[in-house]
Amino acid sequence: MKKKRVIVGLSGGVDSSVAAYLLSQQDYEVIGLFMKNWHDESVTLSNECPWLEDSNDAMLVAEKLGIPFQTVDLSKEYKERIVDYMFDEYAAGRTPNPDILCNREIKFDVFLKIALSLGADYVATGHYCQKEETTKNNGVGYHRLISGADGNKDQSYFLCQLTQDQLAKTLFPIGHLQKAEVREIARKSNLVTAEKKDSQGLCFIGKVSLPDFLQQQLQPKTGNIIEIPYEFYKDITSSNTLTGQSQKTLYQSTDGKIVGTHQGAHFFTIGQRKGLAVGGTPEPLFVIDTNVDENIVYVGQGKDHPGLLRKALKVNTDDVHWVRDDLKIASGETMKMMARIRYRQPLQKATLILQADGLYVRFDQPQSAIASGQFVAWYQDAELLGSGVIA
Question: What does the domain layout of the chain look like in residue ranges?
């Protein structure tokens, strides 16, 4: 019987290396494929060429495992689908998540299609998440996206935009393991990546200076930094139940106090502390909102400033995505869920409320620094059911 062919996205890191190793020990025909997604060294933080080093490590792992290996250049698709999108989002005063976009647009779309064209039955990655199959009473089967067994490394959030078709063609060989177990397997297998540090920075790019990166296309523009005091919220009932859109309107109605200047509101995101270059306040200043049209950055003192806290967010109708579309709610319905608005955030109790103009997520407890453009993902127990872009 012919072996199933699996193409592994070898990134040059320990996780994908062990994923390839584990598959090679099973009854699969395994092929390693390295994705070259970026080669603009003008914005990297060192003189090293990160993709070249990673590609070489991936090749050495493939040689060690005795599996075929090749490199595919996806930099054109990456620029069009990720980099241009990031510039557009920051220019609009939003904070994109390139890692989630990279998974949706590159790894599980472009890369998956290339793999299938090469006769693959599956693609595999080194993500810390799991997949299970379930069959409903009507006989229809569904793929469940389950959190990784290692709670500190669970990467299900980064995969929150995947579809049933994509999950059907994907394997996550290390999702049931702890990170320490993965490294131990790599050591025992004498893989060159065994002690390699986890990559930091943007997906498949390496360590990038974000301000330098953004200034390639977004021009500096001097504007005011306005402090919003605690007192501003005294006459506002339940201000943290507002969504970001309604909160922004409130700030436009106050003069506030100008405490400094900045070089472009589009360079800042909600919750940011560094880069303001404003001192002399009793507590550190945090960005609580931005207005790119008026080029204003609003700040407040302290990480518990009420302007940072909100209990609700909105996802526009077109941006709502269900991994399990068989469980989605209808207009007017509500559903109690667990949700998170950033990677590694502990899951929070929340209620989904579907209205005609979009999906609202109301948290039991106020959440800090909910940023427009980021993703909210909702779970039932350990299963990720859906996600959406925060409006």
Answer: 4-211, 223-303, 309-389
